[in-house]
Specification:
Structural class: alpha/beta
Order of helices and strands: EHEHHEEEEEEEHEHEEEEEEHH
Oligomer: single chain
CATH superfamily: Carbon-nitrogen hydrolase
CATH topology: Nitrilase/N-carbamoyl-D-aminoacid amidohydrolase
Shape: globular
Strand order of the largest sheet: 5-4-3-2-1-16
Strand content: 25-35%
Length: about 280
C-alpha cells in the first residue's frame, strides 16, 4: 500500500507575526527533512493576540501579508503542501476572519477556509466569552486535493460539530485537518475523545496541530498535537505542550477499508425532528 508522510507542527505563538514566522521556519525545515509532503501548523500561527485591539495592531491585509508570502516561498522551495492552520485577517466591519490557508507545492494558495463555528458562551460564575466580538464566522465548508488525499478543513472549536465533518467526508474528504489552540482544562477533558470520534464517525484520518504552553497574552494551551487513523487509533502524538514536530506515515487505502467495514456515511439517513417542548 502507498504511504505518505504528513506532519503537525506544535507552536507557542505570541503577538508578533515576525517572531512567530522566525519560530516556524526551523520547524518547517525539520518536517521537510523528515520527508513530510503535507505540513499543518496550529490555529493563530501568525499572531496570538490578547484581544481585538491587539490583533488590529499587527494583522496585515490578506493580499499583502508578508508572512504568508514567505510561506508561499517555502512551499515552492520544498515542493510540498504547507497548511497554515489559521491567521487573523482584517475584515471591513472591524472584526477578523480566522482563516486557514493551504499552499500548494507551486507556492500558490490552493485553498482557504474561514472558521465557521465561534465560541460564544456565558458560564455561571465566569465572564462571558464571545469569539464573535472579534471574529466573523465563515459560511462555507472547504475541501482541497493534497496528493492522494482530499483534505477537509476545520479549525479548533469546529471539532465539536460532527455535521461539518460528515459534510466534508461526503464531499470526498479523507484527511481532516484540525489546527487548534485548545485551553488546558478542555484539552485534558475533550481533546482526544473529540478528535478520535471525528475520525471514527467519518472513517478519515485526522491531523490536529496545536498551540501549547503559556503564551504572552496570558492564555495557556494544551498542546498534544496528534494524528489519528480512520479506525480511531492514534498514529502519533506529541505528549507535551512544547514546540515540536510530529511526523507520521499514513495510507490512503485505510480510508476505504474503514468506510467499508462500517459504512456509516452510506447508511446515514435524514429524519424529522421532534417539536420543541414548551418551556
Amino acid at each position: 500500500m502507498a504511504r505518505v508522510k504528513i506532519a503537525a507542527i506544535q507552536m507557542r505563538s505570541g503577538a508578533d507575526p515576525s517572531a512567530n514566522m522566525a519560530a516556524l521556519e526551523p520547524l518547517l525545515a525539520e518536517a521537510t527533512q523528515a520527508g513530510a509532503r503535507y505540513v499543518l501548523t496550529p490555529e493563530v500561527t501568525m499572531a496570538f493576540g490578547e484581544n481585538r485591539a491587539g490583533l488590529a495592531a499587527v494583522a496585515s491585509p490578506f493580499e499583502d501579508d508578508p508572512q504568508l508570502a514567505r510561506v508561499g516561498e517555502l512551499a515552492r522551495h520544498h515542493g510540498i503542501h504547507i497548511h497554515i492552520g489559521s491567521l487573523a485577517v482584517p475584515l471591513d466591519d472591524g472584526r477578523f476572519a480566522n482563516r486557514s490557508v493551504l499552499f500548494g507545492p507551486d507556492g500558490q494558495i490552493a485553498a482557504q477556509y474561514d472558521k465557521i463555528h465561534l465560541f460564544d458562551a456565558t458560564i455561571a460564575g465566569l465572564n462571558a466569552y464571545r469569539e464573535s466580538d472579534t471574529y466573523r464566522g465563515g459560511e462555507t465548508a472547504v475541501t482541497a486535493p493534497v496528493g492522494d488525499f482530499t483534505l477537509g478543513m476545520a479549525i479548533c472549536y469546529d471539532m465539536r460539530f460532527p455535521k461539518l465533518f460528515n459534510a466534508l467526508a461526503n464531499a470526498g474528504a479523507s484527511l481532516m485537518a484540525v489546527p487548534a489552540a485548545f485551553t488546558v482544562p478542555t484539552g485534558q477533558a475533550h481533546w482526544h475523545v473529540l478528535l478520535r470520534a471525528r475520525a471514527i464517525e467519518t472513517g478519515s484520518y485526522v491531523i490536529a496541530a496545536a498551540q501549547g504552553g503559556q503564551h504572552a497574552n496570558g492564555r495557556a494551551t494544551y498542546g498534544h498535537s496528534i494524528i489519528i487513523d480512520p479506525w480511531g487509533r492514534v498514529v502519533g502524538e506529541l505528549d507535551h505542550d512544547q514546540p515540536g514536530v510530529l511526523v507520521a506515515e499514513i495510507t490512503p487505502e485505510l480510508v476505504a477499508d474503514a468506510r467499508g467495514r462500517i459504512p456509516a456515511l452510506a447508511n446515514e439517513k435524514t429524519f424529522a425532528t421532534p417539536a420543541a417542548l414548551p418551556r
